[in-house]
Amino acid sequence: MSDIVLKILGFCCRLCGVVFLVCGFSSVSAQHIAPDSIILSDKKISCPPVLLKTNLIYDIILTPDIEIEYLFDDRWSAAIETSVAWWHSDCRHWYYQLATLMPDVRYRIPARKPGHYHSIGIFGSFSWYDLENGGRGYKGEAWTAGIGYTYSFPVNDLLGFEAGIGVGYLRTRYEEYLPIEGHYVYQQTSRTSFWGPLRLKFALVFDLNRYFRKGGKP
């Protein structure tokens, strides 16, 4: 499981680098988007329209979460979200290990109040997990696909808040095991599918683009 988590983190870091490079190029080349820039050492640096987010629900349940959303224009955006938990105690046979990668594409609709938005989008995810609480354990993989709705609003010039929900389809395959005499003994392999609520979001939003526009000032 640790190798999987490290691979996910490495992939996410490389993906974030690619996103920033692509977004920076897009902000310069796209004619319908006026690129924002700052002056540093007499050089003009383009800043892509990027939002950083963290889902406070995942943070509270000890699954640190981060999301990067790129705004193509006033309507369309794309995001990638990842959350990883790596908590365990072998002596108590307690495991809470989870890694998730979730891409998302959204269409933004301005609300009546300035800076307030409704968003409708489609999302998918792939997860790895190992869950045990001193008894029967479950280790496997899961994927989801669904549609989501979010409502976002500003808190101040740089911070905002986003609340949302998503519904769709989940499919998982997992192995059941029991801790017996210091060993984890395989029991059976099972599959489960589910239609219904899949996502609940209360996220803090940081406007990275506006932060750079203000010269790094809060």
Summarize the structure.
By secondary structure, this protein is an alpha+beta fold. The protein has three helices and ten strands.
What is the makeup of the main sheet?
A: 8 strands, antiparallel, barrel
CATH architecture: Beta Barrel
Enter the CATH topology name: Porin
Strand content: over 45%
- Total helical elements: 3
Major sheet strand order:
3-4-5-6-7-8-9-10
Gyration radius from CA atoms, angstroms: 20 Å
Which regions contain 5 or more consecutive residues with pLDDT less than 50?
4-9, 13-44
Walk me through this protein's architecture.
With 218 residues, the chain is an alpha+beta fold. It has one domain: Porin. The chain is 18% helix and 62% strand. The chain contains three helices and ten strands. The protein has helices at 2-29, 56-60, 208-213, and strands spanning 36-40, 43-47, 50-55, 65-71, 76-89, 94-110, 117-133, 137-154, 159-180, 183-207. The strands form two sheets. Strands 3-4-5-6-7-8-9-10 form an eight-stranded antiparallel β-barrel. The protein is elongated. Residues 4-9 and 13-44 have low confidence and may be disordered.
